[in-house]
Every structure is written in C-alpha cells, then in structure tokens.
Amino acid sequence: MIEHSHLKIIQALHTNGTLTEAANALCLSQPALSHQISYLEKKLGVALWEREGRSLRLTQAGKLLLEAANQVLPVLAQTEKTLEAYGEGRQGILRIGVECYPCFEWLTGMIGQYMRQMPGIDVDIVQKFQFSGLEGLLNHHIDVLITPDLVKKDNIAYETLAEYQLVLLAAPDHPLADLPLITPELLSKETLLTFPVPLERLDILTHFLTPAHLEPNKLKQIESLEIMLQMTALNRGVCVLPEWLADIKNKDLNLKKIQIGEQGLFQKLYLALREADQAIPYIHFFITLGQQCTGKSFT
Predict the structure, then answer these.
(1) Taking a C-beta distance cutoff of 8 angstroms, is the pair 170, 177 a contact?
(2) 262 lies in which domain range?
(3) Number of domains in the chain
(4) N or C: which end of the chain has fewer CB within 10 A?
(5) What's residue 294's pLDDT?
(6) Is 159 helix (H, G, I), strand (E, B) or coil?
(7) What's the CA gap between 168 and 204, in Å, rounded?
(8) Are residues 236 and 152 in the same domain?
C-alpha cells in the first residue's frame, strides 16, 4: 500500500535531484533514505528511478507515482491545515436548516454579522428538506436547525434563541382593528392568511382556535410574506406574525397589531443540534451571537 511518506520521498527526489539533497530536505540520513527507497521498490515490485551519474532519473513508474504525489500531497496538506483550524474554531462549514418563514427572517437579521466575525466559516442555508428538518439534522445533512418546534430525540440538544409574542395583523379600517384583543370566536369569522405549512404546525390553530373547537371561516396559504401583508392591508384577510417581525415589516403599511387572547400567544424559537457538536467553537459562537442579536431585535 502506498503511504504518505512514500509520496513525500518521490516528490523530494524529483525536486532535489540527488539522494543527498533529498535526504536533507526530508530530515533523514542518506542511508535511511536509501533503505526506504529500496523497501518501497521491493514492496511495489517495480523500479521507480535509475541513476545517471550522481543524479536520479525517474522511471515511467516513478513518474506515475510522482503525478499521484503532486495531486495528493497538496490536498492532504490543506486538509491538515483545515482540521487544525477546525480545532481552533477558525474554519469550518456551518450548514443551517431553516424550518419556518419567521425562522428565515430571524436568520437574515443576524447571519451577516456572524459571517463578518467568522470569515473562515463557510455557510450554507437549507430551507427545503426531503422529509423534515430534524431528520436532516439526524442524517448529517445539516449541522443546526432553526425551528419553532421542540421535538425530543436521542442525541439532539436544543438551545432557546428567543421568546416572542404572536400578534394578529389587520388593516386600519378592519372591524377588528380597534379591539384590544382577539377572541377565538371573532377570529373564526375571518379569512386567515398563513404560510404554506401543515396545519398542525400553525400555532394560531393548535394553541388558540382548535382548543376552542373553532376554525377560520377561510384559510388561505400565501408563499410570500410581502404579498400576505399587502393582502392584509387590502382587507383580503388577517394574518398572524411574531411581533418582532410585524414591527419590521409594518413600517409602511400601518397595519394594526392586536393581542391574541387575554394572556397573549407566545412562542419560542429554538436551535437544534447534535449533542456531539455542542463543543464545536463556531457552532457555539453562532448560538451565542444569535441569542445576543435576538435580545436586541426582539424587544
């Protein structure tokens, strides 16, 4: 089997031209290098070079091995540097799964700062999964998952990124606009605009309407947040958003924010990751920065 040391020997012989200079470059004695050369040729069953006076000339087999060395050794050297940097938290690949539309908006607000502070980290964003975001995490397709759902699984840890209130948005001239809060009975008479997600993942249904044994008069799923807000402004329905996101997107529309229920409807945003990855420095920094940015933008 060809080993890393064999590739370094053949490259050193080609680069330096003589046995003495190659031995010096490899920090070996000349007899030790001669022994390794003989061993390698015997092991491979083919001559790798021949002498021309004091110089060495590679045979056809030697040139083939040199070509392999020139391809492999730089890759190995870069890999060693990258692994060393991984250990120091300076370089890596962070694959981020995003499982909800507000999750993506939250990520948009902090990812630039993360990349500026961690220039050695490549970032990939995954929004669509073949099955689910959690399965993507378990199958190592992503490294962290931003999600509003805490689903307990073996070997998966959760960090709370934020806690926020969900609010109902309505046009200024909507009949609900001046109410201090919305009740399930009132909301059940409305067209509810939502993102295209399974109904069991809509908090306004699972935590507000369904417990009251009610449902919206009509439910319309909209892919685009901007179009959803425009439709709300034109009295085509009402929508529910995290209050922090509503504040960001509502600056020009003047939509009315209405509290949901007497106690308000609150939600948490989580970051899920594999327990074994909790100590990776650049992942830990992503969590810390995300919590700091959340504290500033969600208040």
Answers:
(1) yes
(2) 163-267
(3) 3
(4) N
(5) 67
(6) strand
(7) 9
(8) no
